[in-house]
Structures are given as structure tokens and as C-alpha cells.
Amino acid sequence: MSEKPEKTVRLGIIGLGAQGGMYARVIAAGEVAGMTLGAIADVDPAKQELAAEKHPGVPFYDDYLAMLDSGDVDAVVTTVPHFLHAEMTITAISKGIHALTEKPAGVYTKQVEEMNSFAAEHPETTFAIMFNQRTNPVYTDLKELIDSGELGALRHTSWIITTWWRPQGYYDQSAWRATWGGEGGGVLVNQAPHQLDLWQWLCGTPKKVFAKLAFGFQREIATEDEVNALVDFGDGATGHFMTSTNDIVGTDRLEMLFDQGKVVVDASRTVTITRLTEPERDLSAKMSMQDVGKLFRGEGDPSDVYTTEVKDYDSAWGSQHVAVLTNFAAHINDGTELIADGAEGINGVRLASGMQLSAWTGREIDLVDYPAEEYLAELNARIEAEGTYPVRS
């Protein structure tokens, strides 16, 4: 059993795949303050040789339960298939081990609710989720602006995020990809969870959703590869979310219209903020048609009505995961506020599964009084039809 240095979190990585391997690399390189690589667990025997080569001297376990009981780790990150996130998080917390779960928090809300409830019963143990996009300055700056109230109440928002192009070969790499039993969904649970989280983080949690999904539309898969969804935020505010994996060019454009302004984000890099001099309805009430004509013809000074600010951001790619790991360690060591509390993961899961359920049933889904059991029954029917994986409970 290794000895824990003071104020250092020994992280255990469950699953040494691409993501887990990246975490191990940055921690071993000393890029994560307050954290060391405590141990690695993976059921694949080939990963033991890889771990020994890349991280000599770091304990390796072929069973994550043995790692949790070893005394080698203070915390774990669950870089494993989505269905296992909740189960492994609950097990870790039950043993007094801090848990950083990967996105999405789970596949269906019942398992995520159980995880959240269990974590709430153990407040002495840190529970966080890897929403690394919440560290992107594009979105942290927008969050601050929106929360300030400067732009007023939300009216409408639209996010087109189709930069997730995946060729057929991507799905053919592994039999579990884009299956109901192995992955639990397609683009909504694999590629787009970050946008679903950011969307509700910035705009508020939607109350209802109606969606049209295409399953195996342009790829030989069982799950959704294209999504169009309409959401209701309440108080008249609405939204549209579109994503797919079959657009080789791809678009990433977020628009948010408020009572006193508008925000447009292109490619998660360029932010255009329009600020009205007064709330739109006040401008509508006071402007004569002559004033409107001058505005549309480009006559006069538009700054009497609005101003526009354009901000360009450098890419934050590569630093975001390190920021979340560092924050996770700081919370354990010093009580620093979490970037994303693990309990918040259910919002994106409910939204994604609500979109699926709406497409399956052809009706609008209430996300406040969410029909969790109905969703699970529909999911299990599809898992049974595949005939490869066990149904879920």
C-alpha cells in the first residue's frame, strides 16, 4: 500500500481507454495540481502491459473493486461505458472514495437518481462530473453575462451542433457502439452531452420537449444519428436543438434571444453580443414607422437602438479536462467550489432521454413530471430486440 502525501489526491482510473489514458498521462506529467496517479483498473488483460509500459510502478488491477479496497486510491474517475457510470460511482462512494463520473451521468434517469440520492447521503465524499466545457471561457463569460440579468429574460434559443461527423468505420470498430444495450443511444448520449449540459446551464432547464429523431438514418446503426427537438422553458421561452453525425462539413451555432439583446456563438470561438438600448417591447412601443424605416434603410445612428460587440476566443481544447481534474482535487483538498456537482448530470440525461421518448411515442414529454419508468420500458424493449445485452432495471 502506497502512502498518501499530504494534500494530494491519489486518483484511480477505471478504464484505460483513450480518455482514461489521457487522464493518466496528464496526471503523471504533473499537470494536475494536488493530484497523483494512484492506480489503474481495467478488465482487458492487454491494458496491464500498456499500463506497465506507460506508468511503471503504478498499481494495476483487473477488478475495480479490488482497487477500491486496496488503499492505493482516494478518488476515482469512471472512464467506462455509460451504463456503468452510476453503478461504479455508487460503489466508490459506499467505500468512502471520492468519485468523478464521466459524461453522461448515465443512460436513463432512474439509475442517475439512485446515484444522486446515494451521493447526497454521503456529503463527506466528493461527487463531481466531467463537464469540461464549463471551463471554456466562451461559455463561462456567457454564463456570467446571462446571470447578471443585463440582457433580460430568455425568449428563444437555437443550437445547431452537427460537427460530430462519424463515418461508418467509426461504428464498426466495436460491436457495442450505437447499440441500445451497449451504449444506450447514439449522438445524444455519446457526442452531444456537453452541448445539452451547456444549453440548460446557460438557458435554464427545459420543462417540455417534442422531438423528431432519425434512427440509423445515414449509418448502419440502431440508434439516433440525427435529432431535431423543440423545447419549452416555460414563461413563453422556447428552443430548438439539432444535432447529427452525418454532416461532413458541420455547423456549430448557438443563438440566444433575450428581452434586451441577443447572443450568437459561432464555432464555439466567435461571440457576437447585441445589446439593445432598451427592452425590445419598449422600443417597439415608442418607435414610429418613420423611425423604423430609417433603421432598416441604414439611415441615422443604429447605436440609438443597439450596439454590437464581437469577441474572438482562442481554442481552449486540451486544457479543459485538466481544469476539471485540478478543481476536483482542490475541492477534496481545500473545499474549493466544484465546477460541476455530480448531481447536475441528471439534467442532460433527462433531456436526451426525453427527446428519445418523444420520438418513440410521437408526443410531447413533460420533463418536470418525467415518465422515467415508461422510458426504461421502451429502452428495454429495444435492448431485448437486439438480443445481445441484458435489460436494465
UniProtKB/TrEMBL annotation:
Q: Which UniProt keywords apply?
A: NAD
Record flagged with keyword Mitochondrion = no
Q: Which residues form the Gfo/Idh/MocA-like oxidoreductase N-terminal domain?
A: 10-125
Q: Name the InterPro entries on file.
A: Gfo/Idh/MocA-like_OxRdtase_N, Gfo/Idh/MocA_Oxidoreductase, GFO_IDH_MocA-like_dom, NAD(P)-bd_dom_sf
Q: Name one Pfam family in it.
A: GFO_IDH_MocA
Q: Kindly indicate whether the keyword Manganese belongs to this entry.
A: no
**Entry-linked Gene3D superfamilies:** Dihydrodipicolinate Reductase, domain 2 (3.30.360.10), NAD(P)-binding Rossmann-like Domain (3.40.50.720)
Domain GFO/IDH/MocA-like oxidoreductase: where? 140-263
PANTHER family recorded: D-GLUCOSIDE 3-DEHYDROGENASE, UDP-N-ACETYL-2-AMINO-2-DEOXY-D-GLUCURONATE OXIDASE
The name this protein goes by in its record: Dehydrogenase
Species this protein is from: Brachybacterium sacelli
